[in-house]
Design brief:
alpha/beta; Rossmann fold; ten-stranded mixed β-sheet; 5 helices; 26% helix; globular
Length: 247
């Protein structure tokens, strides 16, 4: 299989690195089973999509990806969320995306991140039932990170967490220091909702394994830099789980 040389990314040690990896998900043909469904959430049904990679009969883990703020157009079809899901799918990981209450075809009304925690828990419970005993990963973008990481930290089935564009300027992440689970943070250097210095300060206070990848010149939505974003997730996961490269 071919490889792709990506431009500079900056890791948490602030040293410029050049990432060489297998073809990005935009170039890699992916065959999966896609199922549109509704989950029974605490405020009514939740619209969801489950991708199960056909080439991975025995997945190593399964993932839930949470979307950005629904009052600002955020849904499970958001580009960043979709790219995260495609990256995980390309590694042979089953992926569940869902719409928070009040978004898309999901029932209920927006609850400022409180009730949405129950929605994320519903998604984890469903995925856990579909893949019993399998370690779970929870990823969240923007609002989805503020909600999802909180839920993932307290659910024992969730072994790893990915925070994408964490909106530290306006959201409370004070729960993170009590969460020792391995975490990847992918952040745009020019993110308008999360000041880079504040993100670094938050992560410096955390226990356990925490890795920050800052994508230079990228905004909150990684416009024009989705390949670097995808690469950050791929590299972190394949370093932690080398078997994913052959799944």
């Amino acid at each position: 299989m071919g490889s792709l040389e990506l431009g500079p990314i900056r890791d948490s040690a602030e040293s410029s690195i050049s990432v060489k990896l297998l073809l990005t998900n935009s170039q890699m043909p992916t065959v999966h089973k896609s199922r549109n469904l509704f989950l029974e959430g605490p405020a009514g049904r939740l619209e969801a999509i489950l991708w199960t990679p056909a080439r991975s009969e025995s997945p190593l883990l399964a993932a839930v990806v949470c979307h950005p703020h629904p009052l600002f157009g955020g849904t499970m079809h958001n580009k960043v969320v979709y790219n995260a899901a495609k990256t995980l799918d390309a590694l042979g990981i089953p992926v569940l995306r869902f719409n928070f209450r009040g978004a898309g075809l999901s029932a209920g009304e927006h609850d400022n991140g409180r009730g949405e925690q129950g929605d994320a828990q519903t998604a984890l419970d469903y995925l856990g039932a579909q893949f019993p005993g399998l370690p779970l990963l929870l990823a969240g973008f923007s609002f989805g990170s503020a909600v999802g990481l909180r839920v993932g930290c307290r659910d024992a089935r969730v072994r790893e967490l990915i925070g994408i564009g964490i909106p530290v300027n306006s959201s409370d992440f004070s729960f993170l220091p009590e969460c020792p689970k391995p975490k990847l943070f992918v952040h745009g250097a020019d993110d308008q909702f999360g000041a880079r210095k504040k993100v670094e300060e938050v992560i410096a206070q955390l226990q356990g394994e925490n890795h920050l990848v800052v994508v230079e010149d990228a905004d909150h939505f990684f416009a024009g830099h989705l390949d670097e974003f995808n690469a950050a997730i791929t590299v972190w996961l394949t370093e932690r789980h080398p078997a994913l490269l052959s799944s």
